[in-house]
Amino acid sequence: MSAEERAIVLIPHSSSLISHDSLFMKQQKKQFFMLSLGCSKNTVDSESMGSLLQRAGFNGTADSDDAAVLIVNTCGFIEAARQESIDALRELAAAKQPNQLLIAAGCMAQRYGSEVVEWVPGIDGVIGTRRWMDIVPFVRKLRRRKHPQPLYHLPDEAATVGTDEKGALRTAVQGRSAYLKIADGCRRPCAFCAIPQIKGTHISRPPETIIAEAIRLQDAGLQELILIAQDTSDYGHDLGMKNGLSQLLRQMTQAAPGIPWIRLMYAYPGYVTDELIETMAASPQIVNYLDIPLQHGHRETLKPMRRPANIEWVYRTVEKLRSAMPDIAIRTTFIIGYPGETDEEFAGLMTFVKDMQFDRVGAFTYSYEASTPSATVSWQVPEEVKLARQAELMTLQQNISLAKNQAQVGRALPVLVEGYGDGVTVGRSYRDAPEIDGLVIVPGKLPLGEMVPIRIDGAMTYDLTGYPETDVPIASQTTISL
User: In a 3-state reduction of DSSP, which class is residue 306?
Assistant: First the structure.
């Protein structure tokens, strides 16, 4: 797949110009190509950079040949993500024209700095994840440079994380859903994670700014807001707020009552408070869904991970969540094969998963990261053992997921319609976050971007099938304008 095919183009643009005459060159000078890799948090940063470039007079293009500025917003979390970023940069560098600028942005750029240029000759500039808001002056500086050496814009210390967003929306709209970033950075000490090195410490965005964006998204017709951060449950700590996420949610539901779904991602174990549970249960807008990345289910693995190891808290909190919201869908993730993980500890994780009956589970094998504390542990689990354990866990979870889905048969669920093809419509229920969870599949063609009541009549391991409760007219999705 080419870089163009993988690109998330922030501002759709098409051009019939194919020759490099003077008119083309003039137009090309004001066009940018953006490839966003990695997580939804990266996508928001890409959208924000794109909006700043657009405000400065640039247009986005899906064709890298048509752009004067090529930007890859890289991911640097694990080795596989870094390699994908390097491959994308190399592909663009190999085809780069003399009048084009190639910029490496984002997490890998922040983490590795000048090494990125060594890996990919032809890069003109490297801008870190903490300075995305400087993309326009950085491009201008690159254009003014008198020598071809790469330029860098990489703050070294967490204290230099930028908080001036230059008025850019911190959202990424996908259909009728939007990711809304409420904070950046992380102050947690997880031994396997380089995010604090990359992003710096946790910084919450002002609540009034977030609420204003939620209102704007409501007015644009959005059906779903997905609140994201490295740790959403830490929101407001640095602002002196107690139960800051609960306060923010209450303000948001009052200020933007026209948004049907508000979804929470990336809650930290131990910080899902009674107040947060009460806030979720009290508001129909806040969907009965929560993502809590636990990373393991055995305390003797969690301790060297530097993760909360109070397993009893998890049992109590999940019980509270299910008592307050009996139909809640709970998602979590686990790291398999963390250095030192014994057969007994993995067996403990399997028992934990059986006990908890999570609706959604992601399981990832441990990735060695040289700059993290976990890299100093001498006992690294062999790769074949990691893969075997991952397969065993996912086989267990598939049976649980199937049973959870089968329990939905007969229910009528509001489904957000997202696509149509091959005679069927696909959408998501409240139980499904975009890209990572399942789908609801319905015969026929339903209106894109609308909430449609679907009676569930079938269940698969990850997906559901159903039919509309009533006759629904076919309608085209209108354009989202922010």
Answer: coil
Q: Do 415 and 426 touch, CB atoms closer than 8 A? A: no
State the burial class of residue 318 (Cβ atoms within 10 Å of its Cβ: 0-12, 13-18, 19+).
buried
3-state SS string for 184-209: ECCCCCCCCCCHHHHHCCCEECCHHH
SS3 215: helix
Backbone angles phi, psi at 355, to 5 degrees: -65, -45
DSSP state of 176: T
Q: Which amino acid is at 471?
A: D
By three-state DSSP, how is residue 88 classified? helix
Distance CA 176, CA 225 (A): 9
Class of 3-160 in CATH: alpha beta
Q: Is the Cα torsion angle 374, 376, 378, 384 positive or negative in sign? A: positive
pTM of the model: 0.89
What would the two tokens of residue 478 be?
């209108």
Q: Give the C-alpha separation, 366 to 387, whole Å.
A: 10
Residues of the chain within CATH 3.80.30.20 domain(s) are 171-406
Contacting residues for 284 by C-beta, under 8 A, at least 6 apart: none
Q: Which residues pair with 420 in a beta bridge?
A: 425
pLDDT digits (tens, 9 = 90+) for 427-453: 999 999 999 999 999 999 999 999 999
Dist. CA 71–CA 61, nearest whole Å: 12
Q: Which helix (H) or strand (E) holds 421?
A: strand 412-421
Structure tokens at 258: 């026209």
DSSP conformation class of 295: B
Dmax of the chain from CA atoms? 69
Domain 171-406 has CATH 3.80.30.20: yes
pLDDT digits (tens, 9 = 90+) for 259-311: 999 999 999 999 999 999 999 999 999 999 999 999 999 999 999 999 999 99
Could you confirm whether domain 412-468 is CATH 2.40.50.140? yes
